[in-house]
Amino acid sequence: MRKHRLLPLCALLGVLFAGLLPKLDAQGQEAQESADLVLLIDGSENVGAANFPRVRDLAMKVIEGLDVGRDTIRVAVALYSMDLEVKFFLNSYDTKAAVLDAVKALQFTGGNEANLGAALEKVTGILLNPTSGGRAEEGVPQALVVISAGPSNDDFSAGDRALKAASIITFGVVVGGMATAELETIASDKSFVLSAPDFRAVASMGDQLLPYVNSVAQRTIVIQNEFTEGR
Predict the structure, then answer these.
(1) Could you give the CA distance from residue 1 to residue 114 in angstroms, rounded to a whole number?
(2) Distance (Å) of CA 107 to CA 16, 55, 58, 87
(3) What's the gap between Cα 24 and its chain centre?
(4) Across 27-46, average pLDDT
(5) Is residue 148 one of the residues assigned to a domain?
(6) What's the number of domains the chain is made of?
(7) Each residue of 203-228: pLDDT tens digit?
């Protein structure tokens, strides 16, 4: 049976609040500047057409603060409601400008259900695999940010297990707090779930989220797998 634990959380806090980064040689520095990032956005009526531009602005703000590129941080975006709607894959665009243009063009599609569980299973099976531009086999860390405005309408336990089995570092942004408990379960650590009281505050969450995502690319946040014998 494989277990995982997050390392090093204390070191992460040092990076966030003291600005301390480990010294690296040239080879190590090059290896630390890459990640595969999926933004999984609630596209259901939990958000609604009127509030969707605010959520889109959060995605824009995060991407603007990242070193996006073919060999650095690759970005994929998908909306989930009744079904998962992939907007673009990790290998769809090679430049930050192209990714930002694609996010800017996102439109609200709506849906009465928010099936987060089914969406999470497809993150590992579709969005982060090598065919879609995933680089886990090359040792590139993979991260997921779930932006949710309401509880899931389906069981997310299988999707959660798939994320953890694949060592995907998962973060959450909750609007309104109704989905806080389930995102704390899905996230790699409870401290990786950020909460916005309402949609007016959503875009401002980008400043809080960016240090976490950049720390994944810099290998400051790491998941270590532990292997134990199963029964």
Answers:
(1) 31
(2) 33, 11, 14, 10
(3) 26
(4) 81
(5) yes
(6) 1
(7) 889 999 999 999 999 999 877 654 33
